[in-house]
Amino acid sequence: MKVEALPVVQGDFNLSNYADVAKDFDWEQAWKSLSASETGRLNAAYETIDRHAESSNKNKVALFYKDANRKETYTFYDMKRMSNKAANVFQKHTSIEKGDRLFIFLPRSPELYFALLGALKMGAIVGPLFEAFMEGAVFDRLADSEAKVIVTTPELLERVPVDKLPHLETIVLIGEEIEEKDTIIDFKKEMKEASPYFELEWLEKEDGLILHYTSGSTGKPKGVLHVQQAIMQHYQTAKWVLDLKENDIYWCTADPGWVTGTSYGIFGPWLAGTSMVVLGGRFSPDTWYETIEEYGVTVWYSAPTAFRMLMGAGDGLLKKYDVSTLRHVLSVGEPLNPEVIKWGANVFRQRIHDTWWMTETGAQMICNFGCLPIKPGSMGKPIPGVKAAIVDDNGEELPAYQMGNLALEKGWPSMMHMIWNNPEKYDSYFLKDKWYVSGDSAYMDEDGFFWFQGRIDDVIMTSGERVGPFEVESKLLEHPAIVEAGVIGKPDPVRGEIIKAFVALREDVEPSDELIADIQQFVKKGLAAHAAPREIEFKDKLPKTRSGKIMRRVLKAWELNLPAGDLSTMED
Ligand code: 6R9
Q1: By CB atoms within 10 Å of each CB, which of 182, 492, 517, 560 scores lowest?
Q2: What range(s) does the AMP-binding enzyme C-terminal domain occupy (predicted)?
Q3: Cβ(331)–Cβ(302) under 8 Å?
Q4: Whose CA is nearest to atom 1 of ligand 1?
Q5: Using CA atoms, how far apart are residues 268 and 182, in angstroms rounded to an integer?
């Protein structure tokens, strides 16, 4: 395949620098550069915030926060005090101890960051929940993790089925005029009274940090546990891949409900002592460009769907804003189309650097570094210290240009440490006790660049968000009119994929547009807005295996007018 390489950005680092780092690269060494060296113990919140608050960076801005109603700025020193206060609130009013799960179900706001860091200071494992989750999704996560505490708002609390969650002891509410009870705590009021001093819990490298739930093609969402030592890789990649420097203003557009919003929306940038912008509220092209101009953003980490939406808003809009401060732009979550790279080169005069990784990997793995030539359509190369390969289903490495499973040699610092309550699932990720198998298919070219081809399973990537078809199908089956449901990702020029559902109705129900709207609303309310099918097609019967499993690959073939392949396992 012939591809045109964009020129390498001029800068003070280049591939030979990386090669040097890689040569004597030693994770323990990186580890020692963090302050755990003396005790061998650490706390991710200390490394992220307090270390800077106790240095000459003390009065440097850590957080620039903005939404439609608020505009606030917090230094590293402020963040230390606010997270200490939050830790004191939790210590006083909950039974949280090291290793207990505390969930945060909040829209982006400064309080989300205070609460998250405060909980980490206590040694709690934090489970961040995306604000769009509805009752079913919230229940699955809190029940599986046996969370003791949830921090949320009075509005979002309506989606927390408190009565069905026996382990949930305390609800910390962020809002106005909260009526406190034994089990209900008014966060704002308690924060005012709490001390800004806190003796944090020192932890081991393998102690828990963050629990992110993510979707597979079967079963309920699974809890991917990351541990304290993950911050080594967050820190290294913040330097190598995000290329964060002393005076950067960094903006990651991801919500902390997803892994990008914690690894690179909290840990990476703040470990590196960088000033970070957080924008609350929903996506709008105007507000986004305005944010870059207003804060003078220099390093920007976003996703292909967002870039495509900005592209769709037209270059005329961009001309109203000054985005000339941007010097390094990165993308994650879905394939970065060459058209988007071309658009970035034209309108921002910037290369867009793709990064490939997953919730399970915890941090960036295969990337377009600033020093590499960009081959549009390729994800780049593994970061130093990581070995990636294409392997067959037996774990044998395949030669260049052969498509297969994208795999990583296990043992990188930010690798997940368990699937909560599900050791079999965890084991099923590995082949030959050597390879972590990603579930993505790809090939490698002769220069060692990796090219994404697709998911091997049926997981849907819509607007960069990972949705398991099984969860959506289960929700659809709860609708009184539906007897069978099969869900696939349908290619979409803006969102990457959209969710399409094929459903069979009960015999006495007639298909109609109202019914489609009703079903969409049902999934939106029960699961999450982004999980609702944008398209619904009625069928008399769905293709199933003899064992009764819906054959999504046949649905996909119907949709794309492709041959359906081997149908030997299909029922008559
Ligand atoms: C960080 C994150 C992981 C899945 C992954 C893959 C897709 C991520 C990509 C990409 C093509 C890239 N993906 N980065 N596909 N190019 N640069 O997104 O985690 O939500 O767990 O999704 O996303 O399919 O397996 P997560």
Answers
A1: 182
A2: 471-549
A3: yes
A4: 358
A5: 37
- Structural domain includes residue 569: no
Q: Has residue 434 been placed in a domain? A: yes
Residue 373 has a pLDDT of: 87
Q: What is the pLDDT of residues 278-316, one digit of tens each?
A: 999 999 999 999 999 999 999 999 998 899 889 989 889
Q: Does 470 lie in the same domain as 439?
A: no
Does the interface ipTM go beyond 0.90?
A: yes
Half-sphere exposure of 71 (CA within 13 A, CB side): 4
Pocket test for ligand 1, best of 340, 356, 364, 405 (most atoms within 8 A of CB): 356
Same domain, 240 and 188: yes
What b-and-e string marks burial along 119-155, b requiring 16 or more CB atoms within 10 Å of the CB?
A: bbbbbbbbbbbbbbbbebbbbbbbbbbebbbbbbbee
Cα–Cα distances in angstroms (integers) from residue 80 to residues 76, 247, 318, 546, in the given order: 6, 20, 37, 59
Residue of 466, 467, 530 to test ligand 1 pocket, by largest number of atoms within 8 Å of CB: 466
Residues with CB under 6 A from ligand 1: 214, 258-260, 332-336, 354-359, 379, 438-440, 452, 455, 461, 466
CA of 366 to the centre of ligand 1 (A): 11
Question: Is residue 52 situated within a structural domain?
Answer: yes
Domain that holds residue 280: 18-393+419-443
| pLDDT at residue number 548 | 67
Checking if the pLDDT of 49 tops 80, the result is yes
Tell me the CA–centroid distance for residue 452 and ligand 1, in Å.
10
